Amino acid sequence: MTEKENGLADDPGWFELKFPDLLSADSVREVHARIVAEWDYLQRSACQMAAGRALWKHVIHDPLADLLAGEACLRNLHEKIKKDRSNNAREMSGVILAVRTLWFDSKIEGALTSFNGRDSQVVLLGAGMDTRAYRLSCLKESDVFEVDFPELLQAKANLIKIAIESPYEHHHHQQIAKSLNRVAADIRSSDWLEKLQSAGFAPEKNTVWVLEGLLYYFTHSQAMQVLETIADKCNITHTVLLADFMNKPSTTLSNSVFHFYCDWPDHLLPSLGFSSTKLSQIGDPDAHFGLMHDPLNLFNKIRSLPRSLQTHPDDGKPCCRLYLVQASGSPLLPPIE
Ligand SMILES: C[S@@+](CC[C@H](N)C(=O)[O-])C[C@H]1O[C@@H](n2cnc3c(N)ncnc32)[C@H](O)[C@@H]1O
After folding, report:
1. Tell me, what is an example of a GO biological process annotation in this record (predicted)?
2. Predicted pLDDT at 293
3. Which one of 44, 217, 226 would you pick to mutate in the ligand 1 pocket, going by the greatest count of ligand atoms within 8 A of its CB?
4. How far is the CA of 10 from the centre of ligand 1 (A)?
5. 120-125 and 206-211 as β-strands: parallel, antiparallel, unpaired?
6. Quick one: which of 46, 64, 80, 147 has the fewest CB in 10 Å?
7. pLDDT computed for residue 332 by the predictor
8. Among 71, 69, 68, 56, which residue's Cα sits nearest to residue 105?
9. Regions of the chain short of the pLDDT cut 70
10. What's the 214 CA to ligand 1 centre distance in angstroms?
C-alpha cells in the first residue's frame, strides 16, 4: 500500500472503520465495559496506544491491536483522523505513535542482535496493550517480562486468550517470545524490581529495557528512581535502555497529565552510568519510516531548530518535543595487570 505525504495510506477503502467480529462477542464486550467503567486515565492510555497501532495498520502489523483497544478508543481516534483529513492537516493523529512503535521495534531488534545471540531478556515497563511477544520474530530467543498494573494485565490476558481460542479468528495468535511473564506491580513503589526478579528476571542476563510512553506519567523522583535502578544494572551485564522523553514544553500544555520531563536525556543518562547514548527526534533519519515527507510538518520544523529553544521563533508557540533515546552500558573490564 502506498502512503501519502502525511503518512496515511493512499487507498480510500483503507479508511473505513471495520471492527473485527470478535469485538462484538459478549465476553469481549464485558471486558471492555469494565475498562471504560473502572480504569483511570493512566490505564486507559494503554488502549489508546493499541488503537493507534490498529488504525495505522498499513505500517504496523499488530493483529491483536483492535481487540485490545476496544470500540470506544478505535472510534475516538478514527474521528480525530477523519477531522485531520478533512482539514488537510500536515500532522495526522496517531503518526507520532506509529513512528514511535516502529522506532522501538527496530531498536529492540538492533539491541538483541548486538548481544550476538547470547541469552537475553526484554523488560517492558508499563507494557500496557503491547503485543510484541506475539509479533516480533527477533524475540524468539528472549524471555519477555511485561510489567503493569494487575487489572490491566488480567484484562489483557483474558482478551488474548479469547482471541487464541476463537474459531472465528483469521489470524493465528501465537506467542513468539521464548517466554512471556506478566508481572503485576506499581512501578512507583519500591518493590517492583523484587517482583520482577520473583517472576524470573535474572540480573546477570543481557537485558533490553523498554520504557515506551511511560516516564512522563511519573514525578521527577519516581522517574529518577526507575532510571537509576536500570542504570545500576550496567555494572552487572550488557544493558540497553530504550525510552521516550518529553521536553518541558510538552508537559506544560494545558490539561496535561504529564509530570516528568527532561530537556537533555543525552546528558542525564551518561551521568547515571550509561556509556553511550543516542537521541533521535520524530522525523530524524532513524525515526521517520517514510511517514514524515512533508518538510513543513510540525516535527520537521521543530527538529531543525536548536534544542535549547523552548518557543518557536516564528509564532511563539511552545516547541513540544518527544525524544526517542537509546542508551547502553556494560560492566567495566577488569584493569590490565
Ligand atoms: C501510554 S501507556 C503505554 C503502554 C505501552 N508501553 C505502549 O506503548 O503501548 C502507559 C502504560 O503505563 C502503565 N503505567 C503507568 N504508570 C504505571 C505504574 N506506576 N506502574 C505500572 N504501570 C504503569 C499504564 O497502566 C499503561 O499501561
Report:
1. methylation
2. 78
3. 217
4. 32
5. parallel
6. 80
7. 76
8. 56
9. 1-15, 117, 169-171, 254, 333-337
10. 6
pLDDT at 202 (0 to 100): 97
Whether the Cβ atoms of residue 323 and residue 280 lie closer than 8 Å to each other? yes
Residue to probe by mutation, ligand 1, list 42, 103, 124, 131, most atoms within 8 Å of CB = 42
How many Å apart are CA 79 and CA 76, to the nearest integer? 5
Q: Is ligand 1 within 6 A of the CB of residue 244?
A: no
CB 183, CB 73: distance < 8 Å? no
Output the residue whose Cα is nearest ligand 1's atom 4.
128
Cell readout for 177 is 517470545
Cβ of 130 less than 6 Å from ligand 1: yes
73 lines ligand 1 (CB under 6 A): no
Q: Which of 62, 131, 148 is the pocket-test mutation for ligand 1 (most atoms within 8 Å of CB)? A: 148
Distances (CA, A) of 160 to 31, 122, 136, 257: 11, 20, 16, 29
Instruction: Extract the C-alpha cell encoding 251.
Output: 508537559
- What are the tens digits of pLDDT across the range 256-294? 789 999 999 999 999 999 999 999 999 999 999 999 878
Placement of cell 502489523 in the chain = 61
Nearest atom (ligand 1) to Cα of 49? 9
Question: Quick one: pLDDT at residue 1?
Answer: 45
Kindly report the number of other CB atoms within 10 A of residue 136's CB atom. Answer: 20
pLDDT in tens, 104-138: 999 999 999 999 867 899 999 999 999 999 999 99
Q: Extract the C-alpha cell encoding 156.
A: 489483557
Residue 146 CB less than 6 A away from ligand 1: no
Q: Burial code of 117-130, b = ≥16 C-beta within 10 A, e = fewer?
A: eeebbbbbbbbbbb
The three cell numbers of residue 155 are 484484562
Q: What amino acid is encoded at 158 in this protein?
A: N
Residue with cell 499488530: 62
Ordered domains of the chain (ranges, CATH): 12-86 (no CATH), 95-329 (3.40.50.150)
Ligand 1 close to Cβ of residue 44 (< 6 A): no
